[in-house]
Design brief:
The protein is about 20% helix and about 35% strand. With about 375 residues, it is an alpha+beta fold.
């Protein structure tokens, strides 16, 4: 091979190498430019994301939470010890009852239900912060199912009492209490379902003028407050109804409370004088119903058959006798919706009232001045 041929081969090889390097460099530059300009804006090269969790600090406060915060510290759990009973097998163990209550004054007066403290020998209250204080019974009114107790120690708060006469069906209410005695200061919400309800107590009288609510009330809520959205106590929870009139149907959302105006009247008198007095007539009686009247061929369908007149009582002074049937007191006739006790309790001790009795085939009007019955 001549030297010209060798130079030619070297020239061609050098030219090819330079072309390859130029092509590689140009391609790289083009790809870089294209990636910056040709790719869509949502496509990017991968980079590790910054780890950052957003936490919301929104403060949510409603009328319900405000009401609970206002009255919650004034709600207590009431605990009672019921002594065991002597049986043929020996003495039974003591048992414990529990319910709820509302602080009425800084002096430690607390309102609850009579059935919460009934038959107890010892009482204590557990405050909203868990502090337990000894307490004692001041007095009760079994007909309204109310009791006032007094705790010894500083009170964390005092409840504000509202006007139950202003309540309307559909109004939002809050029940606070200790269901089952364990879940203290539980809050449930509902509405006023109705006002002015009457329920047969099973003891010969009706509990009248009750508030009906669908706020969840369970055993242990008894004595706790029913509260409006202003944080005012407008009722004292007392009972629930699961079914009625022998029906197997199970009902829900049938809770009842004593109106705050009734509670206030009775509690203030108990605190002021140590008891709440009901009017006293001085008879023992058997309620007359259509079934009783038909069985014994009585001349009236409703009334109170006098089985005994207590000596020296207002009834004795008025001339009421054994065998009389009391059919009305004042302007109210005894009937299916108005029992003898409820008609009597519509009056006050010291009232002079007209009583009608059926004696044989005659209806006699009698005047009587009612006495005072203490618990």
């Amino acid at each position: 091979m001549t030297w010209k041929r060798v130079l030619y081969v070297l020239f061609v090889g050098f030219t090819a190498l330079v072309s390859a390097l130029a092509g590689a460099i140009g391609g790289a530059v083009a790809v870089t430019r294209w990636s910056k300009t040709a790719l869509p804006s949502h496509v990017s090269t991968y980079s590790a994301p910054a780890t950052q969790i957003q936490i919301a600090n929104t403060e949510i406060e409603t009328a319900i939470t405000q009401a609970v915060e206002k009255v919650g510290p004034a709600v207590v759990t009431v605990v009672g010890i019921i002594p065991g009973q002597m049986t043929i097998f020996g003495r039974t163990a003591d048992s414990q009852s529990s319910g709820s209550g509302v602080i009425l004054s800084a002096e430690g007066y607390i309102v609850t239900n009579n059935h919460v403290v009934e038959d107890t020998s010892e009482l204590s209250v557990i405050l909203s912060d868990g502090t337990e204080l000894p307490a004692r019974l001041i007095s009760t009114d079994i007909f309204a199912d109310l009791a006032v107790i007094k705790a010894d120690g500083p009170m964390p708060a005092v409840a504000t009492i509202g006007n139950s006469d202003n309540l309307k069906a559909g109004e939002t209410v809050i029940a606070i209490g200790s269901p089952l005695g364990e879940f203290r200061n539980t809050v449930t919400v509902g509405v006023i379902s109705a006002t002015g309800r009457a329920l047969d107590s099973g003891r010969g009288y009706f509990m009248e003028d009750l508030l009906q609510t669908d706020a969840a009330i369970n055993q242990g809520n008894s004595g706790g407050p029913l509260v409006n959205l202003n944080g005012e106590v407008i009722g004292i929870n007392t009972l629930i109804v699961r079914g009625g009139n022998g029906s197997s149907t199970i009902a829900e959302g049938l809770g009842f409370a004593i109106p705050s105006n009734t509670m206030r009247l009775i509690a203030e008198r108990i605190i002021a004088q140590g008891y709440f007095a009901r009017p006293y007539l001085g008879v023992r009686y058997q309620a007359v119903s259509p079934a009783i009247a038909n069985r014994y061929n009585l001349p009236v369908q409703w009334g109170a058959y006098v089985t005994h007149v207590i000596a020296g009582s207002p009834a004795a002074s008025a001339g009421i006798q054994h065998g009389d049937i009391i059919v009305s007191i004042g302007n109210q006739t005894i009937d299916e919706k108005h029992s003898y006790i409820n008609v009597l309790f519509a009056h006050q001790p010291g009232d002079e009232v007209r009583i009608e009795v059926v004696r044989g085939n005659e209806t006699l009007p009698l005047q009587v001045t009612l006495g005072e019955a203490r618990p």
